[in-house]
């Protein structure tokens, strides 16, 4: 089961050098879940990496979420799966993943958010909120759209895309249930300290978040 509290400081991986050690540092700093996202590698490389990350996340007692790859999520018994709008339909993914695996869905519009909730999504990833080097072709989502999604859905909402020390304050008034961060933590000279900074900020700025 994927508990809402585990989504609060949501680390999404990139494919940089020393990913394992940098993720481990971020976990020491307090990230509450890890989404393993590997778009440019072979299935076997993804699988072997996922097995290592599963053990790492188990060590820190945080969920491991697999991006896109349903088969890998099943093989390693991941805690959840995350899919986007260009992947398989939710119904197809649910049939393949089985009835119990939580599935998160990336959404960019109110309509997509409502449909994902209706389909049975465990949570939503809303973004990209700001321009981000991690996904240069991402369509930006307005704060007004975020506000409307938050007001209409009952499942947890995680904001993603360009979240860093400068932009965090812009999304916090909308009280997201989680904040997903990539480069601001993993590209930092000190991922552990950077994760600790965000953990502290979330603790003080969001009522009932921690």
Descriptive report:
The structure is a single chain. The chain has an 8-stranded parallel β-barrel, surrounded by 6 helices. The longest helix is centred in the first third of the chain and has 18 residues, at 43-60. The model is unreliable at 206-210 (pLDDT under 50). Helix 1 (19-29) packs parallel to helix 2 (43-60) and helix 1 packs parallel to helix 9. The chain is globular and about 40 Å long. It is built from 9 helices and 8 strands. By secondary structure, the chain is an alpha/beta fold. The chain has one domain: TIM Barrel. 41% of the residues lie in helices and 15% in strands.
What is the average of the pLDDT values?
Answer: 92
CATH superfamily, please? Aldolase class I
Percent strand: 15-25%
Question: How many beta strands in the DSSP annotation?
Answer: 8
- The whole-angstrom Rg is 16 Å
Element string (H = helix, E = strand): EHEHEHEHEHEHEHEHH
CATH class group: Alpha Beta
CATH topology-level fold name: TIM Barrel
Q: Give the count of structural domains.
A: 1
Shape: globular
Q: Give the CA-CA distance, first to last residue.
A: 18 Å
